[in-house]
Structure formats: C-alpha cells, structure tokens
Amino acid sequence: MNKIIVSIILTCVFLMISCGVYFPRTPKSVKKSFTYCFDGKYTGIDTLLNIDGYYSEMSIEKNSQTIGGFLKDTSIYNVDTTYGHFMFYDNGLFVYNLRNIYYDDRGKKWIKKDDVSMFLKDFSENTEAPGANYFYGNDWGSYIICGDTLKMQVIYKGVSLNDSWFLREYWYKIINKSTILCINTFSLPTHQVTQPKSSQNPLTFVPASSKPPPDKSWILKEKWFWCNEADWKAHKEQLKKR
Asked: 54, 57, 71, 208: which could join 87 in a potential S-S bond, CB 3.0 to 4.6 Å?
C-alpha cells in the first residue's frame, strides 16, 4: 500500500511540473537578501513617470558560429534582437518579463497576440482569463525612488525542480516621463557597489488602455515580502472575501 501511495504522489508531482504549476518555496537566501519590503503605500511614481502602460527594452545579442570547411573555417555572425517589458504600479510593485504569448492551462495551448497590451486588457477584464495565472505567477518585485533613480529588486522564481531562484537589482535613471535608462544591475547578495550595464539602450513607454489589478500576484501572498505582518494578513482576508 505504501508503494502505491508513493507512486501516486510521484505521478502527481510529475504532472504538476509538466503542466507548469510547480511552485517551490522561496529559498531562505532570496528572502534574506531581499531588502525593499512592500508596504502597499502610494509612492508618487506617477508624478515622475507615465505608468498607464509598460516599458519596453530592446536588447541586441551578438554571437558567432564557426563552420569547418575543406580549406578553411568560416565564421558566421548572428545578431538577435529581443525585447523585455515590465510595468509599474503606484504602490511599490512592478511585474517583470511581460510577454505577448501565454499558455492556456485549460485549452492546453499557447496563445499569442500582436502586443502585450492586448493581454493586459484581457487580464484587466477577467483575472481568470487564459494565461492570467502565468501573468500573476511572473517575476515580480518592489521598487524605491531615490531622487531621479528607480531602484528595483526582482525575484526570478523557479518554476520547476531544475530551475533555481535568484534575486537581482536594477537601477533605472529617469530621463523624462516616458524614458528610463538602466545604469546599474547586479545580483544579490553582492559586495560590489555597482556593476555598470553594458547595453545603454533606453526603455520607452508604451501606453495601454488598461492594467490588471496586482492583488492576485504570487508575491503578495508571501509574508516575507511585506514590511508589516498585519498588512499581509489583511491582504489575505481581502482575497478570501473575493
């Protein structure tokens, strides 16, 4: 009987991992290194930046491949352009790695749209829409404002037994209300004060007609993320009532 139970448990774990719903606990090292605790208070970021939408960053990755020939080797150079998107909330939260493609658990298929804002509209109208669980299970974090600089700590969470959690900090200088520039980025914990970012491409603002409420974010369910335990408990009670 014990062997049967163990077999059932292992099968369930495998299915959870294969379906992308595996959700391991946050490592102590990440909790300990995280310093921008969340209090849910208004930050005033909308007086400095447009936040009714998201910010888009273009990254250019260059790589080379050597192909052996009869007389000599030939090098082929590839240039790949990728885009990263993230969005601020005025209570100190932000969500990283927004995408224009999400997986539909119920339909068992990937859904792709022309741009990120279309998904934001869907999730705003229905927090149970296909792909919403991936949005709320994304890489979230909190930020603080230091003069003309936004300092952000984002938690990259493991989504399978093979993935590791890690914490990274980004410093973005506010150029104007629609443009920011990454001036520093480093992994935490670190003893280095700064690690200048090699790419100096500014991030530009992309307006969106609506933004999903952040209440169902996985990170808001974590007690260690909050500055005050009472606020965390109040948030949990609000979610239960809904």
From this structure: 54
Span 120-127, mean pLDDT? Answer: 94
Which residues neighbour 120 within 8 Å (Cβ) at sequence distance 6 or greater?
54, 87, 98, 208, 210, 211, 212
CA angle 207, 169, 37 (to 5 degrees): 90
pLDDT at 13: 45
pTM of the predicted model, to two decimals?
A: 0.77
Residue range 173-187, pLDDT digits in tens: 999 999 999 998 888
Cβ contacts of residue 59 below 8 Å, gap of 6+?
Answer: 81, 82, 83, 84, 199, 201
For the chain, the domains span: 24-241
Residue 242's pLDDT is: 74
- 19 is written with which tokens? 């379906």
